[in-house]
Amino acid sequence: MIFLTFFLGLIVNFTGYVPPGNINLTLTQIAINRGMRQALRFITAFSCVEFFFTFFIMQAAKWLAVQPHIETIIDWVMVALFGTLGTITWLNRNKPPKSNYSDRESIRYGILLGIINPMQIPFWMIAGTYLLAHQWILPGLFALGVFSLGSAAGSFVCLYIYARSARYIQSKFALSNQVINTSIAILFFGFALYHVAKQLWLVLGHRSVDIHISMNL
Hints:
By secondary structure, this protein is mostly helical. The chain contains nine helices and no strands. The chain has helices at 2-16, 22-34, 36-59, 61-65, 70-91, 103-115, 120-133, 141-173, 177-216. The longest helix has 40 residues, at 177-216.
């Protein structure tokens, strides 16, 4: 049963990192510009933080699910995060990659993005609440720790595949760093605009409902 708990954490979090986001796009950039060695250090550091992140978020999943403004807060944090990453990538798109990178730099970057990872909060709010409600995870801190360890392994495997795929695509199509950095910057800006549009849609939708109700009254 413990193995199944570990495997469940691996599969669930692997699935969570398949869609493009700030983590895998940043990793793609690192893998292409800095190489697999630095990418592996980033992935390892990030996955270690992911263990603790999953453990604490799963503990707080039910409490977070009932907070009225948590989704709005996450959206605006993502706007700031994607906007910052997009701006940095865009400003450095024409700079040639350095020949040497500090191992600590990639490790620190992995730890930082592991801590600042707001997209995982709604993911575990939904997935965690569902798994706990259907008793797919055994009660107790030990079982949750095993699940979190599987979650860390799932993020490691998925991100490793992303890094390898990025290196393969670059070598296969002979893409320049400028093209890749520009494309990633545009994706970052696109994700930021998505979250802005989402919040505007919700605000305008609520206003139209309020106007309709007031007119009927």
